[in-house]
Amino acid sequence: MNNNDLENIVKEVLKDNQSIVEQYKAGKTTTL
Questions:
Q1: In angstroms, how far is CA 15 from the centroid of its own chain?
Q2: What percent of the chain has pLDDT over 90?
Q3: Three state DSSP letters for the chain
Q4: I want to staple 28 with a disulfide (CB 3.0 to 4.6 A). Which of 7, 22, 23, 24 is the partner?
């Protein structure tokens, strides 16, 4: 694995977390 692979994985994880946070703030989800 090179740094680029790690960077892409981090970006994907952050993107997923961001949408979870947005859904939570919008009250669309009650579980984390």
A1: 4
A2: 47
A3: CCHHHHHHHHHHHHHHHHHHHHHHHCCCCCCC
A4: 23
Considering Cα of 20, then 22, then 28, then 29, what sign does the dihedral take? positive
Please measure the distance between the N-terminal and C-terminal CA atoms of the chain and give it in whole angstroms: 30
pTM surpassing 0.90? no
CA distance linking residue 26 with residue 22, whole number of Å: 6
Residue whose token pair is 């997923």 = 16
The Cα–Cα gap between 24 and 16 comes to 12
